[in-house]
Specification:
Length: 211
């Protein structure tokens, strides 16, 4: 369908998110299963429940707008989920995989934050107050899910992954001093990789303001 109005664009974006969320209801159980850390597994399981609610919320919004509940293929989410799948295949089990799962999951959450930020703004611009409210609930859940992943990474999983990595490199290390230097370097690397709060979150905030 050719899109020419704001309203049509809004509905197309909702259909894209509808497909994205539906895919996530299938992907999240696999991510939960692959996680070693209890907190992380629980976070994925809890977000799966929220995601099912988000699917229903989108269906309610289609009803409010009196348009067909139709999904439009979201290739971006397909790609992000594929990257998560590769993470599970390529990274060995344990804390390092947990860090990888958090990395993949935060890319997913940030995509959703951008998507919902835009549809909330579009709904408001079009005067669909009720729809805007429902979509804003989901937006807050996505932000909370992202923040939860930051907390899990910073409070435990990054550290566990560092210990695991240092443990396996201990055999090859030639001396205690080298080992200390290596630890310091790796602490920076894992922290930067798993905690993306400042950069991308700021980006999604300005995205929702602009849209
Ligand atoms: Fe979602
Ligand atoms: Fe999409
Ligand atoms: Zn990517
Ligand atoms: Fe989400």
């Amino acid at each position: 369908m050719a899109v020419s109005t704001m309203q049509e664009l809004f509905v197309e974006e909702l259909r894209d998110l509808y497909h994205a969320e539906k895919q996530l209801t299938k992907a999240l159980p696999k991510m939960a299963k692959a996680a070693s850390d209890d907190q992380l597994r629980q976070a994925f399981t809890q977000h799966l429940e929220e995601t099912r609610t988000q699917v229903e919320r989108l269906e309610a919004v289609f009803e409010l707008l009196d348009v067909a509940k139709r999904a439009k293929r979201c290739e971006a989410m397909e790609g992000l989920i594929q990257e998560g799948r590769e993470m599970i295949e390529e990274v060995g089990d344990g804390a390092v995989l947990d860090v990888g799962l958090i990395t993949a999951a935060q890319k997913i959450e940030h995509y959703e934050i951008a998507g919902y930020g835009s549809v909330v703004a579009l709904a408001k611009a079009l005067g669909h107050e009720n729809a805007a409210q429902r979509l804003a609930e989901t937006l807050e859940e996505e932000k909370a899910a992202d923040e939860k992943l930051n907390e899990i990474a910073e409070s435990s999983v990054n550290q566990k992954a560092l210990s695991q990595s240092n443990g396996s490199e201990m055999d090859e290390a030639s001396g205690a001093e080298d080992d200390e230097a290596e630890k310091g370097h790796m602490a920076q690397t894992a922290g930067g990789r798993a905690t993306s709060r400042r950069g991308p979150s700021g980006g999604s905030r300005s995205q929702s303001r602009r849209a």
